[in-house]
Design goal:
The structure is a single chain. The protein has 134 residues and is mainly alpha-helical. The chain has a domain at 29-60. The protein is 58% helix and 12% strand. A two-stranded antiparallel ribbon has the order 1-2. It has a two-stranded antiparallel ribbon with strand order 3-4. The longest helix is centred in the middle third of the chain and has 23 residues, at 46-68.
């Protein structure tokens, strides 16, 4: 069943690319994130360091939410014993409808920001298809 689902997903993606194409959209980096910094004799793009720092802040925020709030306590309780939490009068279905989509929402938000890496290659057109050259 998993193989069928994966194959179907690949077919749907290929059909969508064949119909609408796969344009490579590039945006300019903000001037504050362009450039490099030398650390121990190696150059690091400021953009990469910014993204690493942002990911760290998001991880800390999830940690605080999961281990220091009442909502996080409910989530941990639901994971360990859903029936017991339900018997305490907590609406487990509502909390699960918040708990499980939240990683997908954060992933969609990060992809939706669409700030491209600064050193991505150009695009070339060959036979109607566009390829990224790195």
């Amino acid at each position: 069943m998993l193989m069928f689902t994966m194959a179907l997903a690949y077919i749907v993606v290929d059909v969508m690319v064949a119909i609408w194409g796969y344009p490579l959209v590039r945006t300019k980096l903000p001037s504050q994130l362009a450039g490099t910094i030398r650390i121990l004799g190696m150059k690091f793009p400021i953009y990469y360091l910014f993204m690493i720092g942002l990911a760290g802040l998001i991880a800390i925020a999830f940690f605080v939410m999961f281990f220091k709030t009442k909502l996080g306590m409910y989530f941990r309780a639901i994971i360990s014993d859903k029936v017991m939490v339900e018997s305490l009068g907590i609406n487990v279905k509502r909390l699960m409808s918040v708990m499980f989509p939240s990683p997908f929402c954060s992933g969609g938000y990060s992809r939706g920001r669409s700030i491209p890496p600064p050193f991505r290659g150009s695009r070339q057109k060959r036979g109607g298809w566009q390829y990224s050259v790195t």
